[in-house]
Amino acid sequence: MIIVMNNSATDEEIDFVVSRIKEKGLDASISKGTEKTVIGAVGDERLLDPKLLDNLPGVEQALRIVKPYKIVAREWHPEDTVININGHPIGGKNIQVISGPCSVETPDQMKNAAEGVKAAGVKLMRGGAFKPRTSPYSFQGTGFEGLEMFREAADNAGLPKANVLYYFKNKENIYHAVLEQTLNMWDEGIGDILPEDGPKLAIEKFIRAKVTMSFNNPKASKIYAMEIIQGAQHLKDFARTYLRQWIREKAKVFQHWIDNGEMHEVDPVNLIFLIWSSTQHYADFDTQILTIMNRADYENDDIEQVTNFLTDIILRGCKLK
């Protein structure tokens, strides 16, 4: 929904409209033009009544937008969107060519590419650092290290990079935000290993949660795996503090069950590692699995079958079945 303010609307009236939108649990985005101010309400529009908003001071009209991509729709943003990258405009009547390698691989490759782009008269350079592939054994990209190669090569050639930053100061901040979101999602999704559940139920719940997360969020798992493979330079503090402490606490729970004779004596830490690796395999190596099975995608009952299989094997190994 968009709320168009009249020409004489004051800041106080605009703030009041924003407050009414937020009271209903929606977000408000303000766009101030040369003549009018438009407020975009983002969220469940069913919670807002346009007629009530129409009667607020300073409001000219409240409209529901039925088109997708509301923020860039003409109703919300009638002017052309023009993005300026170091003096090179994109959008409107401007046409820009953005050139560069599909995959960032080595510093020399990026240096030569940047020089070639500049010599051709192209003003903006691009390059891919993260490369999802059909085969898990193919080159997956250089990750954050590739972003550094890209930046250095473009800077030396005097070329701006065609970055999309969206509320972040730089690519490192974006990458950190992606990692943080990934870790939060996994942390919330896998639940917990609780002493009161007992070893059998705790292991069953843990495996089911991990398998479900792997099948439903394979890209998140791969981002985390790539970071670890490259030395975890952005996750070392997380691994040393939170993750290490989490492992120690859960290992103590397993050891308590072992000492009480509730389960077979196994190494608790290696047991957790086994559950991690066996469940995340279905995310990190999904292409390999699907290729071998001659299938285009996982099927609806795969989560249940994999969960039951891994649970049966691990419970038997712990003498819980």
Put simply, the count of helices is 11
Measured between the Cα atoms of the first and last residue, the distance is 56 Å
Biggest sheet overview: 4 strands, antiparallel
Please list the strands of the largest sheet in the order they lie side by side: 2-3-1-4
Globular, elongated, flat, extended or rod-shaped: what is the shape? Answer: extended
CATH fold naming of the largest domain? Tetracycline Repressor, domain 2
What pattern of helices and strands is seen along the backbone? Answer: EHEEHEEEEHEHHHHHHHH
Radius of gyration: 26 Å
Helix/strand-derived category reads: alpha+beta
CATH architecture descriptor text of the largest domain: Orthogonal Bundle
Descriptive terms for the model:
single chain; 321 residues; alpha+beta; Alpha-Beta Plaits; Tetracycline Repressor, domain 2; 3 domains; four-stranded antiparallel beta sheet; two-stranded antiparallel ribbon; 11 helices; 8 strands; 10% strand
Protein model, in words:
This protein has 321 residues and is an alpha+beta fold. The protein has three domains: 2-72, Alpha-Beta Plaits (2-Layer Sandwich), CATH 3.30.70; 83-157, no CATH class; 172-317, Tetracycline Repressor, domain 2. It contains eleven helices and eight strands. The chain has helices spanning 11-23, 50-54, 107-119, 143-157, 171-189, 198-216, 218-229, 236-259, 268-284, 286-292, 302-317; strands at residues 2-5, 27-32, 37-42, 59-63, 83-85, 88-90, 98-99, 124-125. The strands form three sheets. A four-stranded antiparallel beta sheet has the order 2-3-1-4. A two-stranded antiparallel ribbon has the order 5-6. Strands 7-8 form a two-stranded parallel ribbon. α6 packs parallel to α9 (268-284) and α7 (218-229) crosses α9 (268-284). It is extended. The model is unreliable at 163-168 (pLDDT under 50).
